[in-house]
Amino acid sequence: MDNGFFKNIEKKTGVNMQDIFDLANSLQNANFKDEKTVRNVIKRVSQIANKPVSRDLEDQIVKTIIKDGKSLDFNTISKMMNNKK
After folding, report:
1. Within the chain, which residues score under 50 in pLDDT?
2. Using CA of residue 62, residue 67, residue 68, residue 69, what is the dihedral sign?
3. Which superkingdom heads the taxonomic lineage of this protein's source (predicted)?
4. pTM of this prediction?
């Protein structure tokens, strides 16, 4: 894909694509059964999305990922953040 494509995404979303690529690379070998790892990923996604996550919501996301067996990806965390009022 050309660089213009990613620049358009950055303009529309306000999210730096390099941050997304760095996050994706860090997720490849991450242990998603480890609470500390999951919390770090949630905090990183929160920073990238510029959307604060309360401690209660972070706890809920961690529980969902570790205990309920949901996969950890940007979309899962984003949906949970958007559904919490």
Report:
1. 85
2. positive
3. Bacteria
4. 0.68
